[in-house]
Amino acid sequence: MAAPMLRGCCLARRGALACIDGGSRHGRGAAIGCRSSGKRGRSSVAQQPLITAQKSGKGEHAWAAVVGLEIHAQISSNSKLFSGSQVQFAAPPNSLVSFFDASLPGTLPVLNRRCVEAAVMTGLALKCHINKKSLFDRKHYFYADLPAGYQITQQRLPIAVNGSLEYSVCVGKKRSQVITRTARIKQIQLEQDSGKSLHDELRSQTLIDLNRAGVGLLEVVLEPDMSCGEEAATAVRELQLILQALGTSQANMAEGQLRVDANISVHHPGEPLGVRTEVKNLNSARFLARAIDSEIERQINELENGREILNETRSFDCKLGCTIPMRDKEGKQDYRFMPEPNLPPLLLYDTASLPPGADPQQVINIDRIREQLPELPSETREQLVQQYGMLPEHSFTILNEVGLLEFFQNVIKETRAEPKKVTSWILNNFLGFLKQQNLAVNESPVTPSALAELLNLLDRKAISSSAAKQVFEELWRSKGKTPSQIVSEKQLELMQDGEALNQVCLAVMEEHPQVVLAMKRGNPRAINKLIGLVRKATLSRADPTVIKEILEKKLSS
Amino acid sequence: MLGRTLREVSAALKQGQITPTELCQKCLSLIKKTKFLNAYITVSEEVALKQAEESEKRYKKGHSLGDLDGIPIAVKDNFSTSGIETTCASNMLKGYVPPYNATVVQKLLDQGAVLMGKTNLDEFAMGALGSDTGGSTRNPAAHCGVVGFKPSYGLVSRHGLIPLVNSMDVPGILTRCVDDAAIVLGMLAGHDPKDSTTVQDPVKPFTLPSLTDVSKLCIGIPKEYLTPELSSEVQSLWSKAANLFESEGAKVIEVSLPHTSYSIVCYHVLCTSEVASNMARFDGLEYGHRCDIDVSTEAMYAATRREGFNDVVRGRILSGNFFLLKENYENYFIKAQKVRRLIANDFVNVFNSGVDVLLTPTTLREAVPYQEFIKEDNRTRSAQDDIFTQAVNMAGLPAVSVPVALSNQGLPVGLQFIGRAFHDQQLLTVAKWFEKQVQFPVTQLQELMDDCSSVFEIEKLASVSLKQ
Questions:
Q1: Residues in a beta bridge with A339
Q2: Which of A117, A123, A555, B128 has its CA 20 to 30 A from that of A462?
Q3: In angstroms, rounded to a whole number, what is the distance separating the alpha carbons of residues A334 and B325?
Q4: Total H helices, total E strands in chain B
Q5: For residue A99, which residues of chain B lie inside 8 Å, CB to CB?
């Protein structure tokens, strides 16, 4: 299959498939490569360099980075975790606030069933153990957008524990070797989101919007099983795809539905782990990998220069391209955790433990939710490979781009063209155009039907592949026209009349005796020149292979 | 009329002997006469008269809503009342008008009850009337010669009750007699979707049976409640009560609640921890008091909270936060929780051994004069006040204080009955039998006031206490 990798498409950063090369892609400072620790003993590990400061001798002072993640995903639900207020993005400030959300005294939390089901479903998809009994706790801190002075969370006994998240990286010189990695999931806990503080620097005021206060969050804690920014970003992307497939979170980073904190440390392999820092609020897919890598780089430089790493909270300054310490006036926080006395333990059941005669509205059956699990991204990709003979790395690209899978499937439904051809067109031409114009799939002026029709024309050799590209470009410009319309307007259909083409070939040969002579003398490139001339004469409406056949026939006769 | 029981007044209303408006006006005038007692923080006169008028219309049409229609009620000022200021007697909530009714308030209003106003309390109910966290319904009832009933935890909704200790708070019922308490409980009890700690089982209004035979009853007398501080007068009334049961054929046995002595310390740790957490919301941002300082959010918090809370509240917040610190959590909070479990198990063991109801004093002694009362600091005072009552809150059990007799000084003394969890009806049935035997004289506030020659002195004291 002809389709090459899409190198220009920022695939590594945003995709659930990271492409990792051996050299320094950063062009400055320490060279950072992934997968430095050999403890997981994968064969690919040997190919990856350890992180080495440039000034030290090769391999002598190899550094390994250790990255763990805490990911907050907003639960996709109609109402908040403990109140009946609606959940909605970009509503007018403080328009979605119940008495409970504003912490009016005497109000009490009432747990939202939908949020619990979302947590269970996410836990099952991530191969977690679901705790049949979990507890809620209060985590105290004073902040203007936390009205009650505490957040209700699950510190002691969360709803799901001990899962794993599989994500894939592609390695090797051609980046064609897909390797699956696993990050262990420590726990998934249900908790409340906070409100938003809007700082008006000019008037030195802080304005509070409580619309988000109390929205249900899933906090997914990933063990420090990653070793660079790209691995982390790839893991986050995979989690995002899983959440979206489950429908448990829209997981849109730009709308703050998915937020990431990273715990980062560096050490020499075989030695104890280094002091870690926490980089907070990595709320953009673009900066996630960069922030983590720059923090790793900073820590290595600090240590190489004989300084120490402080256990601190940092944030990523995307303008400076590095992490900076966060202002933390209160110093070390003690959250004074306490059981939430207004919520009894959250009990879940499976079919075996379901109490007889239980009100289905009052109980949650884990087995029932397991039955409802949809196809997960890894299964979808496997399906693409099996059904359409797609290369694994292409299946990743298809899933990573929002809406692309659906687009692909719709084209496949309507075209007779080979699936490989479809894949190639979508990954090269279609996605290339989107990237060039910075558009999302759903903003594309080319519909799946239009592309399917175009591929059909190509498939039955009604147009040449170069004409097809011309039609495709035209589709992009003139919305609403069908490929057939464009083909007939521009007279791009291939000449189906063999005699006419024969005549054109003869005429071209007569006009260019030197080229014919060169051919006869055995110059292999001369025929291409003739083919080109014939095509020009036919306004590119002739199939080059047919032209070649005719020319060869005439010359040999 | 104002000295009668709920049932008697209800009957008088139904027979037209008195109208709801007349009754309401009588109450309002008594409230005005007794203003020097500071019993009310807010008197909702207009609302009350309007509600009484509506009730009157219903009676005229013959559409009375039931036993509570037209009955004057008062609600402690820590229950949220829609449109009526609710302060918890705290500067922090001065001027705070809740936009909603507590579930129990709503239920009473739905039954046609007429809300006279919001009664006074220690700041955030740290020792006073109508809700019961450590004894705040039963103790005042004992001192005032009325029935004070604390239902089982989870039977009555806490939604809208501004919390002191969520895991122990229960709306309390103060009435003239046990039957009245049962009527009100019947109206209030039951699952509230807004309070996840209320039990799901449906509760129906009930009437208490009149016991004639107590021979099948087993009354437990916990030996640990015989403390050296117990006044001899109360002790003797307690013994008499036990003898009464025994002479009528009940089995009366001494029982042991071995962890009783640890209860008050344990209560202190758990109570202050929850207080510290619950008070975190009072930051001056969303409602209530806010200071003028606007240098920074942190400075605003600090000044607002300093101005808004009194010393007792601040002291509890500080100790509670201390107990919840990471380094102290195991040693204090977790330990206290374990002790709480032991205390609850003490009760379970006693009840499992065949005891139906426990009989104890409610308070160490009769009410002390104000001058005596203010000698002790709040911690000592609440430790003494709640000595016989708070263990019940930690175990979530129902308990009721029933007035038994007047002391030599002429002041009321009450005794406490403690029942099994969710056996509130059984408990009240026993209490009703006892009430009938002792025939406690109905307190006539009017007479007391007429007799009271030192009113002016009291008035002076009251105004002193206000300025503090």
A1: A137
A2: A555
A3: 6
A4: 18, 12
A5: 99-100
The distance of A75 to chain B (nearest Cα, Å) reads 22
Q: Which residue has the tokens 């005032």?
A: B144
Interface of A with B (CB under 8 A): 99, 102-111, 138, 140, 142, 144, 147-150, 206, 208, 329, 334, 336-338, 341-344, 362
| Record: contact B162-A343, CB cut-off 8 A | no
Structural tokens at position A422: 């479809």
B196/A109 Cβ within 8 A: yes
CB < 8 Å to A104, chain B: 80, 98-100, 286-287
Q: Which of A376-380, B34-38, B176-180 has the weakest average pLDDT? A: B34-38
Angstrom distance (rounded) from CA B437 to CA B360 = 17
Q: How far A294 CA sits from the closest chain B CA (Å)?
A: 33
- The residues, any chain, with a CB within 8 Å of residue B46's CB and separated by 6 or more, are none
Q: What is the percent of chain B with per-residue pLDDT over 90, rounded to a whole number? A: 78
Band of pLDDT at residue A172, cut at 50, 70 and 90: confident
Lowest mean pLDDT among A387-391, B86-90, B92-96, B383-387: B383-387
CA–CA distance, A345 with A113 (Å, rounded to integer): 14
B298: chain A residues, CB-CB within 8 Å: 142, 329
Quick one: pLDDT band at residue A527, thresholds 50, 70, 90? confident
Rounded mean pLDDT of B275-300? 92
Task: Enter the pTM of the model.
Answer: 0.84
Q: Which tokens go with A535?
A: 């095509």
d(CA A258, CA B16): 67
Q: How confident is the model at residue B460 (pLDDT cuts 50, 70, 90)?
A: very low
Chain B residue with CA closest to A83: the answer is B194
- Looking at residue A362, its pLDDT comes to 84
CB atoms within 10 A of CB B335: 17
Q: Tell me the two tokens of residue B306.
A: 């300093």
Q: Which long-range contacts (CB under 8 A, 24 or more apart) does A307-314 make?
A: A308/A275, A309/A265, A309/A266, A309/A274, A309/A275, A309/A276, A309/A277, A310/A275, A310/A277, A311/A275, A311/A276, A311/A277, A312/A277, A312/A278, A313/A277, A313/A278, A313/A279, A313/A280, A314/A277, A314/A278, A314/A279, A314/A280
- In the numeric block, which tokens belong to residue A350? 């499976």
CA end-to-end distance (rounded Å), chain B:
37
| Chain A contact probe: residue of B166, B281, B304 with most A CBs at under 10 A | B281
Q: How far is CA A379 from CA A86, A211, A402, B348, in A?
A: 33, 37, 17, 54
Structure tokens at A14: 């945003």
Give the residue with greater pLDDT, A265 vs B35: A265
Of A142, A329, A338, the CB nearest to B283: A142
Binary contact (A105, B88; C-beta < 8 A): yes
CB atoms within 10 A of CB A347: 14
Put simply, whether B179 touches A (Cβ < 8 Å) is: no
